Amino acid sequence: MIEEFIGRDSGKRYCIEGKLGSGGQGTVYLVKDKANGSHYAAKWYKPTGREAQQESQIEALVRRGEPFTDDTGIRFYWPIECLSFAGSTGLSYLMKVYDNSKYFKFNEICLGRSKQPRLPVLCRIGHRLAAALEVLHAAGYAYCDINQDNIIIDPIQGEIGMIDNDNVVVNNSTVDVRGVWEFMAPEVSLGNAMPNAESDLYSASVLLYYLWMWEHPMDGKETMKLYSWDIPAKQKYFAREPLFVFHPTNHANTAHGVQGLELHVTRWERLCPPKLKAMFTETFTESVHQPVRRKRLNEWRRLFLEMESNAPVCRCGAVNVWDGASKPLTCWKCEQEVALGLCLHVRHAHHGNSVQLAYAGASLRRHHLDVGRFSADSSKVEATVEPHPKEPGHVILRNQTAHTWSYRAPDGTLLDLEPGKARALMAGVELHIGPRTVKVRAA
Predict the structure, then answer these.
(1) Among 97, 127, 149, which residue terminates a domain?
(2) Residue 412 in contact with residue 324, Cβ under 8 Å?
């Protein structure tokens, strides 16, 4: 019985206080630093005969360090150091331990063991998943084993954690772990390529689909007939002949009318805005076997940021999200039309448009004005939409920056909009914020 681990680099001693979980690779223990009482997690691997390669991989991750992100809502539970323990030559490593009263595994959320994320929070989670992988890739890594078991989610605040980072490798390295069949890019599943940052893009798309649909994009009428999900079956339906369940023209593997997939269809029809449907459809039809056509992580990030910021409340009290283009907006809960009213429209030369609904409580954010760069500051509020103090049903926009803007009224009158001050919003108003022109119009 293992009672104590010793840090190979630090020489610190960590006593075992309990078991956090176990799986195919080994066991994760809760341990305490004997010197200062700090708690960590220690993962111990079952003997496999490839410990030397695993150890080399983990030591490389320790040396290079975890990717940097300025978003405090993203955490990497990264290897801190390798561990030794008496009476064994096995492999173990130390990492931070997460708060399981705050974070939940994906399956726990689906099974109702935690509060369900509201739609804007679901968008925030999607944005952060894409952002976490983007900074991982920017640091020269590939995750290689993206699946729903390797993320933890705070369903209230939309914070995420990336766990099981011992499978992360320097991009384009030779690896033994190829991932979970359901999430593998087809070229990896079929043995035509090794996992890398490009194949991560496909795996990330499947993960984002799971996040919204709670099902696999290729699991429909045909796959429900299977009696055994063996490797040949997974290669056929997930890699060699994948057929999206909501394919626009080929309905052979549809989810519609299939017992057990009713919730899948309901979430697709009610919760998934048209722009997001289009992203998923292209990803899982034309782009499946064409890595160069896969959606970039910043495309997912921008869409989720835009959707999160457009979260009007229906008269029934349900919070919805709008994709900035599709009309009318139908409430996911009561299926009645949600009034959109005015919007703030920002045109960008090379990145399309940004649209923010102008309902009381909404905000114009930095990502609406600068779509070319992403950081934690992308969600910084530049202006807030508030109820008009004298005209019920109308709204005003308050400048929340330290800079004075120009406000052009519909009759052409040019006024200043100073820091902390507000002016009325109505169709035909133009705001000049730095190099950007923000036009107020009907949504």
Answers:
(1) 97
(2) no
Same domain, 269 and 217: yes
Q: Are residues 349 and 302 in the same domain?
A: no
pLDDT class of 371 with cuts at 50, 70, 90: confident
Judging by beta carbons within 10 Å of its beta carbon (0-12, 13-18, 19+), is residue 350 exposed, middle or buried? exposed
Q: How far apart are CA 311 and CA 330, in angstroms?
A: 12
Which range of residues forms the domain containing residue 383?
341-442
109 and 122 in a single domain? The answer is yes
How far is Cα 366 from Cα 111, in angstroms, rounded to an integer? Answer: 36
Greatest C-alpha distance within the chain: 84
Average pLDDT of every residue of the chain: 92
Tokens of 236: 């056929």
The percentage of the chain sitting over the pLDDT mark of 70, rounded to a whole number, equals: 97
Q: Concatenate the DSSP letters of all residues of 191-254 into one string.
A: TSS---HHHHHHHHHHHHHHHHHSS-TT-STTGGG-S---HHHHHIIIIIS---TT-SS--TT-
Are residues 142 and 69 part of one domain? Answer: no
Is this structure's pTM higher than 0.85?
Answer: yes
264: in domain: yes
pLDDT class of 75 with cuts at 50, 70, 90: very high
Q: Which amino acid is at 219?
A: D
- DSSP type of residue 69: -
Residues 188 and 302 in one domain: yes
Could you tell me the two tokens for 153?
């989610």
pLDDT given at position 87: 66
How far apart, in whole angstroms, are the C-alpha atoms of residue 117 and residue 214?
13
**What's the confidence (pLDDT) of residue 238?**
95
Return all residues near 83 (Cβ < 8 A) that are at least 6 apart.
Answer: 5, 6, 7, 8, 14, 42, 92, 93, 94
Q: Write out pLDDT tens, residues 132-188.
A: 999 999 999 999 889 999 999 999 999 999 998 988 988 877 777 778 899 999 999
Same domain, 173 and 249: yes
pLDDT recorded at residue 374? 67
